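We read letters as residues; the fold follows as tokens. A sample entry reads:
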Amino acid sequence: MPSSLRQAFLMPFWMAQVFTQEKFFARNPVLGNRWLNERGLHTARVAAAYRLSQARRRRLARLIPEHDRQRLDRDGFIVKRDFLPADIFEALVAQARDLRAPAREMIEGDTVTRHIAIDPRVLDSMPAARHLLELPEYRNLISYAGSSSAMPMVYLQTILSGAHPGPPDPQTDLHTDTFHPTVKAWLFLTDVSDGQGPLTYVPGSHRLTPERIAWEQARSVAIAGSDRLSQRGSLRVAPEELPGLNLPPPRRFAVPANTLVVIDTCGFHARGGSDGRHVRAEIWAYARRTPFVPWTGLDLSSLPPIAIRRAQWLPHIVDMLDRLGLKKQHWRPAGRKRPIDP
């Protein structure tokens, strides 16, 4: 199809994506348009999404204690050490060690990330994981941080630092995941030292301050000259930019096993640098809904028979889209593996 005809055909679709969670500047010429972003298109989306997320959080505030709300609102993250009772956590680790299940892996730079979807079959082998997923404190912290009661997708995640010859892991650059508040959560099954690629977060960087709005505006206008991941909507920020945003240095979460960390991924975060080859294992959850709705629920994918299978189904859906040339599949089948396999 000629380029001009293709653009005319797709323009209604690209325009409609303005009102969705679509974040890719590079593949949507409306979102990436310099003239429109100079006039505030990107910052209008950011501000509207932020206001709606704050309204949804107010509706969800009753789910968690006030001191947890204050920490999340102030810092953008919360840390809970000794999250599970010792006997349940010991059972969870033992069950994870014995588990062997279909895995997917993605290589980024010198790091391999492995996912095993926590689906009904895995839960049958890991009753302690079922206990975690049904724990109100766990679900409510994730709901509040994500400003939605939608069920997250949950994986057994393994980070293998320095496991592949390549350039530095791009996830070690401070970045936002997208333009609106979303949530990720880690329950660490292994101790994480400062040299093992710990999660890193800039406290307070999730708040939409005048400095942050100005930064978003400048980045959206110059997006054509940015790095590949920023053009895909995951904006990178250099540490030396933080003082100009009135933000403190990043905090590195070198924490013992059985620590839960929940973050708003609109804040600046990264995977900390690693000092060699390391294996890190965790229960990892994330949720990302369209930001332009006022309600906290009404999510069909959160119905129990669907919610617990989404993490299992999603890679196969992307496989199909990849074969059709509609979406790139970065997660490749890795056979049956255990979370702790090197």
Summary: DSSP finds twelve helices and eleven strands in the chain. The domain at 3-290+299-337 is CATH 2.60.120.620 (Jelly Rolls). The mean pLDDT is 92.
